[in-house]
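Fig. S4 source data, part A: sequence.
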Amino acid sequence: MEFADLTRIRAHRPEAILEAASRRPRRRLLADGRRLLIVAADHPARGALGVGGDPFAMANRRDLLERLCLALSRPGVDGVLASADVLDDLLLLGALDGKVVMGSMNRGGLAGAAFELDDRFTGYRPEDLERLGFDAGKLLLRVDYADPGSLTTLHSAARVVDAMAERGLPVFIEPFLTRRTHRDGTGPPRNDLSAEAVTRSIAIASGLAGTSAYTWLKVPVTENPDDMARVMETSTLPAVLLGGDIGDDQDAAYEKWRGALRLPTVQGLVVGRALLYPPDGDVAGAVDTAVGLL
């Protein structure tokens, strides 16, 4: 199928998406003891379209899909994390065969909104991931100690972890301690990447729900990469590193990832904009470099 066919199929044969999901060849989450490399593209569903200095870099859907298909075609790339609209397109394009497919579950905390920290589950439900035969889910868990609403976020996240475990589906929790930038509790939220904050966020996420059997962690590299060894001693849960927007210094980001990937609980990378929109424009080169780190 070509990109130009996507809207036509969606308009005339919407059932083709479920049909494509049902015949998709699957694989194990971890293959042959290798570490994971997952490409992330769930940013647009939270209204986060910017990369570097371009506030709408991810707004062109065909361009995004072309970058994703190229990344997924490279040797060593295991799969993709995205929202339903993106994964539906990739299913129709046949780009998910034999890949790990991870559905993004809570996209309600829109970037820049007054309710940004209200990370409600507006994306995939556990039953959706099971019905589509996907391999895992991911949830964002931002906790602001000054915001009473964070308790609601914790409660809803715990119940989703329970529901995923009941289905035997892994769930990747991306935890942060977050605070508003102004003393009066307003302003955009900022994630605290100090060793102390990341340690606490890992401890909180690890203890959610009635079982941690299917829980993974998706963690950032700390401000000082040398702190990662101590931070990752907080939990025995398997973890992957979060990439994020690396700015113009790709080499520095790769070095941070390289060191953290040596730690025993770290099982791979989940990286989005840094690979899909590298500063030099070479998607294949960025992906191949990340594969080499593993």
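Fig. S4 source data, part B ends here. The first helix runs from residue 6 to 12.
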